[in-house]
Amino acid sequence: MIKTIAVIGGGTMGHGIAECFAMYGYDVYVYEYNEKIRNAIIGCVQDELGVLAQEALIKPEQVGEIIKRIHVTDSLKIAGEKADYVVEAVAENLELKQNLFMELDKICPEHTIFSSNTSSLKISDICQKLSQNRKAKSMVTHWYNPAHIMPIAELTYFGDTSEETFKAVAKLYESVDKRVVKVLKDIPGLIANRIQQGVAREVFSLIEMGAAEPEDIDNALKFGPAFRYCSTGQLEIADFGGLDIWAVVADNLLPHMDNGTSANSILRTKVQEGKLGHKAGEGFYKYEADKSDEIKRQYTKKLITQLKTSKSYV
Q1: How far apart are CA 198 and CA 283, in angstroms?
Q2: pLDDT at residue 311 above 60?
Q3: Residue 295: CB atoms within 10 Å
Q4: Taking burial as the number of CB atoms within 10 A of a residue's CB, which of 152, 161, 267, 280 is the most buried?
Q5: pLDDT of residue 310
Q6: Sign of torsion over alpha carbons 11, 16, 21, 26
Q7: Is-above-0.90 flag for pTM?
Q8: Which pairs count as long-range contacts for 2-5, CB under 8 Å and 24+ apart, including other chains?
């Protein structure tokens, strides 16, 4: 039974993963080697929990209790020696992940399950230097950002991962109210990111051809397809629309749609110009510096509203 959790990496994803588990009563040890990031973890979690309390997802008095369950450390040994389950959330660097898993293999108990939050690297490569016993207790568990709000968790079940390991981790994630997506094939991007990239590719193409302004393209998505996607999956939508209709429309539209196999040129240009989005003050939209925190807060509140609504469709 999984009781104690170690999160390796306390950045954007790591601190949110730790926060989520702590919200549901688990003791979490967060390892972060970078002092600046390490010192910011608790404050960041506290701010995010404050928003959840304002939105009545948790009670204000729970904030302190949740914080007490999160133990931040610069020692991999302290983080891993009592862990029943480890989730790694460091940079997408294969050598770094391999070395961390090798070190943790020496530190953690024999029963400890290892997982990686990666969505682009193979778990077989990350675990390449581990024993067969540990490989059977290893898998990918991919979260979406922000981890403490987004209800999806993609769990891989292929290769060396044992059925016992998958069931134990699936039970853990269901206990923190995640909707588990069981991934049966070792493919780049898993499931959700591939779907998202399919939409994004066409959106960037529409911008590039000047078909509409950014706000109108986003509105077309929000109040068109995404309005249904909030509660209904694509395959269900196709069934209700009629597969014969979907086949005809696909034949008519797909020849005219983007089939590129690399990032759109307009996206590359934005990156080269330093227009990286909200964090840089400008992307496809402009973000005033003095309103940055409020814009981020409103973005989070929209996700929380959707989270509340989605609970009715489970």
Answers
A1: 20
A2: yes
A3: 13
A4: 161
A5: 80
A6: positive
A7: yes
A8: 2/26, 2/84, 2/85, 2/113, 2/168, 2/169, 2/172, 3/27, 3/84, 4/28, 4/29, 4/82, 4/83, 4/84, 4/85, 5/29, 5/83, 5/84, 5/85, 5/86, 5/87
